[in-house]
Amino acid sequence: MIHLHFNPLYIDPGTGSMLFSILIGAAATLYFLLRAVIIKVKVFFSGGRAAVSNTLYPYVIYSEGKQYWNVFKPVVEEFETRQQELLYLTSSEDDPVFENTYHFIKSEFIGEGNKAYARLNIISANFVLMTTPSLNVYQLKRSKSVNHYSHVLHMPSDATTYRLFGLDYFDSVLLTGDYQAKDIRILEKQRSLPEKQLITVGCTYLDVYAEKIKQLPIEDTHPFTVLVSPSWGASGLLKHYGERLLDPLAESGWRIIVRPHPQSKKSEADMLETLAKRYSTNPNVQWDYERENIYSLSRADIMISDFSGIIFDFMFLCDKPVIYVSQDMDLRPYDADDVPDELWQFRILREIGIELKEEQFKTMAEVIKNASKSTLLQNARLDAKNTAWQYRGEAGKRIADFMTKTVK
Questions:
Q1: What is the mean pLDDT of residues 281-309?
Q2: How far apart are CA 202 and CA 398, in angstroms?
Q3: How far apart, in whole angstroms, are the C-alpha atoms of residue 153 and residue 175?
């Protein structure tokens, strides 16, 4: 007979992590249920006047902020060219859409966070396009008066790198490349969801950047330039390695441009301030906080990054090499954790980039020089570009075509 011994005072790390996740999930669910009850009570005592919007809009775009303008700009301009009316709702008071004089585009600032969601949750529209994930998961709900919700991917990397259930409740997802469809279909089968429309349209913001880069002045002569452009969070390059990575670069004599992830400025301000002070007397080290990344991309000869999507911007737009520092990314909070296969972006990175290990930091100059000369990497970059960025230059037109076809 086998005797099992159980220690009631011991919880293994895996079980503890699972219990913690369950408690957090339960607390979040209770919070949003209570919020929903409060809203319904308010609607009841207002006579139901807030139930739906009175105006039915044929086409609506919602932008979380001005950083997404280049994602939507080609679509907006296509509607303007076609003389079709479109409502553009934004959570940025200084959204670039307000700088343009459009005749068929109505733009409106609707506030941020819950204020914006309150408007969106009762809107009436035939078609709503957004980059915001997690529809019908948290505060952002499907309005009963919207016929079709569509999510447009704003990165050429895997579609499953959103938080759990990020794309589950959309009617369609607009892809940058055909390869992104496979993992979405896997999740639909796992979760017994109806199949969404998956339409490959290309990548709008890369189309915009490709045109902008052509207009940028070319530096006739410039020092060899290394762009350090990581993601943010505990697994991000700057947070994890910091001065251990930057010290050897600062001592190289090359021009070093450090472009932190936009979220780092909000979530890791103390860390950035400490690093900025450390290199404040080194004229070779520059910091870039511009809204658009193309200025740094165009000046760099090589990039050092981690798992940030800017890797693909750099390679696809500038056709220059990338060195990546591998750092384990905890996929448990993301849809990717439910997909059995390795993410495309992780697999392809080994083919198109060169891994830099921490023990190589002090001699990284040699690694960087070798990466700059590799024709093998150049061919791999082109293959990846053809896979992940299809229909180059056509995304705005293809999205507008799909929107109008769906409504008709």
A1: 92
A2: 8
A3: 6
* Residue 315 CA: distances (Å) to CA of 161, 293, 322, 378: 20, 13, 7, 9
Dihedral sign (CA 395, 74, 181, 185): negative
**pLDDT value of residue 372:** 75
Max Cα distance, the chain (Å): 82
The SS3 assignment for 151 reads strand
Cα–Cα distance, 149 to 133 (Å, whole number) = 11
Note the helical H segments in 268-393: 269-278, 294-299, 310-318, 344-352, 364-372, 375-388
Per-residue pLDDT tens digits for 63-77: 999 999 999 999 999
Starting from the edge strand earliest in sequence, which strands make up the sheet with 197-200, in order?
105-109, 86-90, 56-63, 124-130, 146-152, 172-175, 197-200
In the chain, what are the domains? 56-203+392-407 (3.40.50), 219-388 (3.40.50.2000)
Tokens 């447009």 — which residue? 152
Digit-coded pLDDT (tens) for 96-115: 999 999 999 999 999 999 99
Above 60 in pLDDT, residue 197?
yes
| pLDDT surpassing 70 at residue 10 | no
Three-point CA angle 73, 195, 61, nearest 5°? 20
**pLDDT value of position 12:** 46
Residue 219, pLDDT score: 82
- Cα 384 from Cα 403, distance rounded (Å): 28
DSSP, collapsed to helix, strand or coil, labels residue 63 as strand
Q: Write out the two tokens for 359.
A: 């023990």
- Residue 180 sits at the vertex; the CA angle it makes with 174 and 182, to the nearest 5 degrees, is 120
CA–CA gap between residue 408 and residue 394 (Å, rounded):
21
Kindly state the average pLDDT of the residues 265-288: 94
Position 163, amino acid = R
Q: Predicted confidence band at 178 (pLDDT cuts at 50, 70, 90)? A: very high
HSE (side-chain half, CA atoms, 13 Å) at 286: 17
pTM value?
0.82
